[in-house]
Specification:
The protein contains ten helices and 13 strands. By secondary structure, the chain is an alpha/beta fold. The protein has a domain of 214 residues: Rossmann fold, CATH 3.40.50.720. The longest helix has 22 residues. It is globular.
């Protein structure tokens, strides 16, 4: 698979955790004459075949200005308040970015760049309580989000679907949890890895305090997720407009087992201590998605070994001081 012509791909959230990995991957795949337009709220270092644009996606006028000026052939929308905890702490901001920002981009593309191919990175969190007793879920599952992050993503997801029936070329991707080096410690795998690295450096006592670890989640390596994103961009014209595609492993991983695997990689013995203050059962004990559609349409499946993913996250935190 290759890009045709000389694509100008606009990436929102280009300097975020996933964005940095996606930029590196797309630079490997771009044909001669292709270009990446990296959109974020702050400027970053210059890269060959990339241009940086500073823009806040909640600013509708600025978004219109960028889309009209750049005329992207493709747009992949990553920018978001990505952590459920952060979205819960500031729901107004989560809605402004995750829904309002998406609305601004979609309306601007429809008006000023109608030939642009819009890839919206939604989330498996949109399924919410549909996971209870019914996993794994495919793309036909009811959207029943259970937190501000999932609700704002679901609203944006529905909005993109509606616009795709009229004047927007759009595909919606719903990835499950993904991790890798560079992810914030607001997320469970790097949170554990950060604690282990601090203990190894002698900065903390050799004890990890935890709450309930019985929930199971579908996890992917960020590089596998980015591969699915890149395939969607390259194959866009061969996919039915408005399509929804889960990006998932189909394998639930119990959080307790994830911590145990990380501890096996530790250089010293670390104890686990249950903190009663953190003990709260998850509202969704098992979260796992069916990715049969991704396998069929994108010819995609995860290829990274989970043990290697965990090791890469731990090694990243070992280098942080």
């Amino acid at each position: 698979m290759i890009f045709t012509g000389s694509p100008r791909i606009l990436i929102t959230g280009a300097r975020g955790f996933v964005g940095r990995v996606l930029v590196a991957r797309l630079l490997e795949l771009l044909p001669p004459g292709g270009e990446l337009v990296l959109v974020d709220a702050s400027q970053g270092p210059l890269q060959a075949r990339c241009r940086n644009i500073s823009a806040d996606i909640t600013d509708a006028a600025r978004v219109k200005e960028v889309i009209e000026a750049e005329q992207p052939s493709h747009l992949i929308h990553l920018a978001a308040i990505a952590a459920v905890t952060a979205a819960t702490a500031d729901a107004r901001q989560a809605w402004a970015v995750n829904f309002g920002g998406t609305l601004n981009l979609a309306l601007a593309v429809a008006e000023f760049a109608p030939d642009c191919r819009f890839v919206f990175c939604s989330s498996a969190e949109v399924y919410g309580s549909s996971f209870i007793g019914a996993a794994p879920l495919d793309e036909t599952a009811l959207l029943q989000p259970m937190n501000a992050y999932g609700a704002a993503k679901a609203a944006a997801d529905i909005m993109i679907g509606q616009m795709a029936r009229h004047d927007l070329k759009a595909i919606r991707l719903r990835p499950v949890n993904h991790t890798g080096p560079g992810q914030s410690a607001q997320f469970v795998v790097p949170a554990f890895a950060q604690q282990i690295a601090r203990i190894e450096r002698g900065e903390s006592a050799p004890i990890i305090s935890v709450g309930d670890l019985s929930s199971a989640r579908d996890f992917l390596d960020v590089r596998d997720v980015v591969d699915a994103y890149a395939r969607t961009l390259m194959m866009f014209d061969d996919i039915e407009n408005g399509s929804i595609i889960n990006v998932a492993s189909g394998t639930p991983r119990v959080v307790q087992n994830i911590l145990d695997e990380l501890l096996e990689l530790s250089r010293i013995k670390i104890e686990i201590a249950v903190d009663p203050a953190r003990l709260r059962k998850s509202d969704t004990p098992v979260v796992v998605c069916d990715a049969a559609l991704a396998r069929r349409i994108l010819q995609w499946q995860p290829t990274r070994a989970w043990q290697d993913t965990l090791r890469s996250v731990l090694d990243y935190w070992r280098l942080q001081t």
